[in-house]
Amino acid sequence: MDELNQKWELDSIIKGSSFSTFLDDLQQAIRSFKNELEARTAPYTVQDAEAFTTVINNYETLCKQFNEGSAYAECLTAQNIKDADAALANNRMQRLGAELGASGSLLENLLRQTSDSNFNGLVENKSLKERQFALREKRELSRKKLGYDQEQLISSLAVDGYHGWENLYYSLIGKIEIKLNLDGKEKTMSVSQANNLLDDPDRSVRQTAFNALESAWSEHADLFAAALNHIAGFRIAVYRARGWDSVLDEPLDYNRMQAQTLTTMWSAVDRYKPKLAQFMQRKAELFKLKKLSWFDLNAPLNKSNETLTYEDAADFIIKHFGSFNPNMASFAKKAMENRWVEAENRANKRPGGFCTNFPIAKQSRIFMTFSGTASNRLTLAHELGHAYHQSLMNGLPYLSQNYAMNVAETASTFSEMIISDAERATAKTKEERIAFLSDKLERCVALLMNIHARFLFETRFYDERKQGTVSVDRLNQLMSDAEREAYHDTLEVYHPSFWASKLHFYITNWPFYNFPYTFGFLFSTGIYVRALQEGPSFVEKYDALLRDTGRMTTEQLAERHLGVDLMRPDFWISALDYLVRDVDEFLELTK
């Protein structure tokens, strides 16, 4: 592939100079819609079918406009965390989100007041049939909440009393400079640049970067702890007011899954951790270590300092996507050639990676920092999987495109697996094959152990937060204990301040931003196993499954497209059986 521009293009979505006008128009539209709903004094009946359909259409349009603006603001803040104007725009989007949320609460209240017979008649109307699942879900969830006035108050207070703490976290991250000594030279890096060094082949570089990062988190730990405590405190107060007993009620509802499914999944994972521990012990032996440390988890086994070009990574992904589905390959090519990807390695970018979608433009944008590693290539494949997933849903009504986080990781992780297996298959030597196997198993460790540590930490943190503020020392202890348990005590050095470093703990829109990753990984692995068994004929089924992710529960999706019951262990075991085969091969090759 010819040289690619690694900076994304945003002007075709919204020109920067016109964003303020876009927000003004959106604000006016939201307020007009709210006034329209407030003027409605009686529940809907089947005789109001036309008016009801118009209201739903208008709400759907507003949601599309809001998410277009929200995605744009997210891109602005991510590409330069020191952009004050972008931060202001993002804050305004949050205020507009609160206003739209208030309108949504009004609509939910009207849905709740509508009798069962009238509601069924309205949503079974031909014009709304495709949005029936979303509307039924809204009605059911509204019955679990407080009345409109109270929910509106919560939404309004959340702007500064809840989401404001997430904004503070991003501001703190933006101000942190990581200072470290490499090759006798003092260097100053952003958090994302320093994080990339944790994959460096040189252990001294990894350890230096880890210690510098750990020092930065510790230095600001009191501020991070304040933000985390206040986010959790706000949630707990709201849950208590709504009568929700468990902090998992909201994330389970959001992910459209049953508690039994989650319990079954974690139980299956626990059964296979001793096998992953064997891999980690062997890797430690190869490094001539008694045990791995946190900064060794992603250490490459090959000592080559060779780096990938962005174009090499793009060519590899396109080629091997095409081996499964030519449509995926052409989509990935289009995304990279049309500058849908922000990959440039520079200072002041937000850490991590993401894919965000623009429902009006029917495009996606991918954010990452590409430094030339094989891990970067997998991140790019992962985010392109997200974008491909969305492309399959663009023709559906917008309310039917709202897929949950757990199934949102299906296409992304599936895409990673395609590239990971291709890396291993194209290995020219035994050493390369070992290295690629190690890389693949490291991701298993991350998704089955690291994510479990986050889940254990967050569950226990919330239990203690109900009794009062949790101190920095206690947060460190909870994190260390969760890591030891999740990793089966296989590490020498843990990461006690991980709770401060991981932005997922501070995201206010989605509580428990952890278990959906493990779910998505294992769900997509089970689907991948099915794809290997059925061959090219599975492509159509795969696309159909992705299209349905926004219009049925997780259990219904698995039953309809895979014929499996997620509340039983069988499906999870089939996925885990496939994954741990790599451990056996790795152990055999490294005897």
Automatic annotation (TrEMBL):
- For the keyword Protease, the answer is yes
Question: What cofactors does the UniProt entry give for this protein?
Answer: Zn(2+)
Q: Which Pfam families does the record match to this protein?
A: Peptidase_M3, Peptidase_M3_N
Q: Which residues form the Peptidase M3A/M3B catalytic domain?
A: 197-575
EC number(s) per entry: 3.4.-.-
Q: Which SUPFAM superfamilies match?
A: Metalloproteases ('zincins'), catalytic domain (SSF55486)
Q: Is Protease one of the keywords?
A: yes
Q: Which GO MF term does the entry hold, naming one?
A: hydrolase activity
What is the top-level taxon of the source organism? Answer: Bacteria
Keyword list, A-Z? Hydrolase, Metal-binding, Metalloprotease, Protease, Zinc
Domain Oligopeptidase F N-terminal: where? 113-173
Cofactor notes: Binds 1 zinc ion.
The family this protein is said to belong to: Belongs to the peptidase M3 family.
Q: What is the name of the protein in this document?
A: M3 family oligoendopeptidase
